[in-house]
Amino acid sequence: MSTSETSQFVRLRVELVVEVEGADALTKAALDRIESAVDMAADERVHAEGAVTQDTAEALAYLVDPFDLVSEVPGVDLAQASWSSEQIDYDPDSPDWGLDEDDVHEDEEEHGTG
After folding, report:
1. pTM for this one?
2. Alpha helix locations (H) across the chain?
3. Cα–Cα distance between 23 and 18 in angstroms, integer?
4. What CA–CA distance (Å, rounded) separates 69 from 50?
């Protein structure tokens, strides 16, 4: 396939597991971000404040912006982004926590080996 026939869009998948060592600081930072948002409606602001106060995963989601990941990359414009966060039980020594686990299954399907 020539360059002119290939898609200009690339899906970038990133999965992170972070350890929250300062939940209060994280929540405060999220509340500060919500307070400084000039284009947020009052009812949306109340909902967001409640969400980040009750759930550190929500607080983190308010602070992580996919645009920040690619905004300084030359020749790239963010077309669409979605992200979520959730609290999980994490054991880095468990074989269930292999990186790229989902990618292996997709590669096998693409190549007819799975």
Report:
1. 0.70
2. 23-36, 42-54, 56-63, 66-70, 101-111
3. 12
4. 27
